[in-house]
TrEMBL record:
The lineage of its organism: Eukaryota, Sar, Stramenopiles, Ochrophyta, Bacillariophyta. It comes from Stephanodiscus triporus. It comes from the Eukaryota. Residues 12-269 form the Protein kinase domain. This is cAMP-dependent protein kinase. GO terms for biological process: anatomical structure morphogenesis. CDD domains: STKc_PKA_like. Residues 270-323 form the AGC-kinase C-terminal domain. PROSITE patterns: AGC_KINASE_CTER (PS51285), PROTEIN_KINASE_ATP (PS00107), PROTEIN_KINASE_DOM (PS50011), PROTEIN_KINASE_ST (PS00108).
């Protein structure tokens, strides 16, 4: 995807909401000059500032700009970023197939082959990110999208960070959070491999392994790390899941001397052609139904935002002045 010449939201026909978050929403948009379609991430500055997330947003922009130079097949690309007094706008590649979360919920759980196909793509995503000292820290089905061919694209780099060794920020989704993050003794790339283990389990069982209405109870379960597998859980998948969901970082797959290679050569992935997968030459087990390039029917319906833009509610200089 080539960089896009634009400087204002007026350069776009803004359409349906594709997703919502704490600071705004993502909407389908068409660039009027080129008729190209994008996902427009619109972040309310006042909410970002109130929540002390300015540095996170700046980091997200920097990381997406870096990643978009390489254009990895399973990572969304950013075409442009700009702002006005009220909003930050990130113009991102639109992934039209919808949220991976929706497909998993509709299926309840995936068969072994489907789960392996999508887990393998996450392995390649993390291998690429870690080669650039980027940790993602927020893997979950909601942050994965399916493209028109049924391949994954990972999105939402709000928690991603460039970390050569360790960082100490407490962040992540309770069901996916790694024990070293909870213990706040510093964490690194190993957190991503933990979340891969959680995703594998959720795809094969239908729920993550640590689950409760109370996040505190989830955290206690994470620290205890008692795994219970269903009878249908593939034995090779079970072995790999255990090696990923290991609190001891000196034993966790992905964190050892061979890095991601330990995961890629595990028995569960014996039949995976990694090169063909990276080149997108394999048939995906799920293929979204699409009527056109503007068909957004695979996304959940969200109430449209009727809030009128208002100036940011803060004193002093705009922290995004040099954004």
């Amino acid at each position: 995807m080539a960089p896009l010449e634009c400087s204002s939201i007026a350069d776009f026909d803004v359409g349906k909401t594709l997703g919502t978050g704490s600071f705004g929403r993502v909407r389908f948009g068409t660039h009027t000059g080129t008729n190209q379609h994008f996902a427009i991430k619109m972040l309310r500055k006042r909410d970002v500032i109130k929540s002390n997330q300015v540095e996170h947003i700046k980091s997200e922009k920097k990381i997406l700009q870096t990643l978009s130079k390489d254009q990895h097949p399973f990572i969304v690309n950013m075409a442009a970023v700009f702002q006005d007094p009220c909003y930050i706008y990130m113009i991102i590649e639109v992934v039209i197939g919808g949220e991976f979360f929706s497909y998993l919920r509709n299926a309840v759980k995936f068969d072994n082959q489907t789960a392996r196909f999508y887990a393998a793509q996450v392995v390649l995503i993390f291998e690429h990110l870690h080669s650039m000292d980027i940790i993602y820290r927020d893997l979950k089905p909601e942050n994965l999208l399916l493209d028109r061919e049924g391949y994954l694209k990972i999105t939402d780099f709000g928690f991603a960070k460039i970390v050569p060794f360790k960082t100490y920020t407490l962040c992540g989704t309770p069901e996916y959070i790694a024990p070293e993050v909870l213990l706040q003794k510093g964490h690194g790339k190993g957190v991503d491999w933990w979340t891969l283990g959680i995703l594998m389990y959720e795809m094969l069982v239908g729920d993550p392994p640590f689950l409760d209405a109370d996040p505190i109870q989830i955290y206690q379960q994470v620290l205890q790390c008692k795994l219970r597998f269903t009878r249908s859980y593939d034995q090779d998948a079970k072995s790999l899941t255990k090696k990923l969901l290991t609190p001891d970082l000196t034993k966790r797959y992905g964190c050892l001397k061979r890095g991601a290679l330990d995961i890629k050569t595990s028995h569960w992935f014996d039949d995976t052609d990694w090169e063909a997968l990276l080149k997108r030459k394999l048939d995906a087990p799920i293929k979204p139904t699409l009527k056109s390039n503007t068909d957004t029917s695979n996304f959940e319906a969200y109430p449209e935002d009727v809030e009128k833009a208002v100036p940011p509610e803060f004193d002093g200089p705009d922290p995004f002045a040099d954004f």
